Amino acid sequence: MNQENKKFKIVTSKRTRYILPNVLTLAGVCLGISSIKFSLDSNFKLAVIFILLAAILDALDGRIARMIKGTSDFGKELDSLTDFVSFGIAPAFIIYFWELKDYGKIGWAITLIYSVCCVLRLARFNLTRIGENDVWKQNYFEGVPSPVGAILVLTPLIFSLSDFNLNYSINYLTPYLMVLVSILLISKIPTFSFKKIKIRPKLTIFILFAMGIALVSLIFFTFISLFIFSFFYILSIPFSLYFYSKQKKTFKQQNEDDHEDVL
Q1: Helices then strands (H, E): number in the chain?
Q2: Ordered DSSP codes for 34-78
Q3: What is the distance between the alpha carbons of residues 39 and 104, in angstroms, rounded to a whole number?
Q4: Is residue 195 within 8 Å of 139, Cβ to Cβ?
Q5: pLDDT tens digits along 25-64
């Protein structure tokens, strides 16, 4: 008997576009868990680098999913769970094994506070819905996003691993910085997200050039670049608050004018 040739498919062709973003997300959680392992081995350089790679994958998976129209509820939930592991648990453990373990119970309490604040921040982010009249708010996060929070809490460690020859240690700032970042995670302070920013075609080449410089800097001067990024990010928060308030006032005035015209 002749048998028809059948193609073996793991998933239907229409759903293959959902695989790549989720694979990137799973790679991120593997990086986060591996960073914990390296911190246990006191290999803090690789631990920080793995957190950085997890943050880069986190920035890519969502954008790739939107580009190939592969977004899904499953992917969204998986992304949140991955973020909690990679940016809520892993950085806390790294800092604990590096510095906070010397503080005893207080050090462990600070570690727990950071992880709890991170999971609360992610839960709130999942429930956040932006209306059609408030599209401009997509350029801002409420509080510090978890990947950035992970880099910020690692700043004292990053400084110690960098090539800054200042003969100065900022290790003592670790518990205070961790509490501050925990508060920023759950705060409603607007921070830049640049999701809906419009770039003029003439500026595209300069944006790509700047991104190229940033990438080269991360490759050859990883820890110095991360420390500089953390420093300037903290400085950007007052500016994001100012521009958010200004845009909110502008759109509120426009809505009031439109309402008056209707009446």
Answers
A1: 10, 2
A2: HHHHHHHTT-HHHHHHHHHHHHHHHHHHHHHHHHTT---HHHHHH
A3: 18
A4: yes
A5: 899 999 999 999 999 999 999 999 999 999 999 888 777 7
pLDDT by residue (tens digit) across 106-154?
A: 999 999 999 999 999 998 888 877 766 666 677 888 899 999 999 999 9
- Alpha-carbon distance of 149 to 237, in angstroms, equals 13
**At 191, which helix (H) or strand (E)?**
strand 190-192
Cβ neighbours for 218, distance < 8 A, ≥ 6 positions apart: 52, 225, 226
The set of residues, in sequence order, having a beta carbon less than 8 Å from that of 175 and lying 6+ positions away, is 99, 100, 103, 106, 107, 110
Burial class (CB in 10 A: 0-12, 13-18, 19+), 183: middle
* DSSP single-letter state for residue 162: S
Beta bridge partner(s), residue 180: none
Entry field: residues in the chain: 263
For residues 157 and 92, is the Cβ–Cβ distance under 8 A?
A: no
Q: How far apart are CA 192 and CA 207, in angstroms?
A: 17
- Which domains are present in the chain? 14-249 (1.20.120.1760)
Q: Give the span between the Cα atoms of 181 and 200, in whole angstroms.
A: 34
Calpha distance 95→48 (Å, rounded): 10
pLDDT band of residue 86 (cuts 50, 70, 90) is very high
Q: How far apart are CA 226 and CA 235, in angstroms?
A: 14
- Name the one residue in this structure whose structure tokens are 């991104």: 211
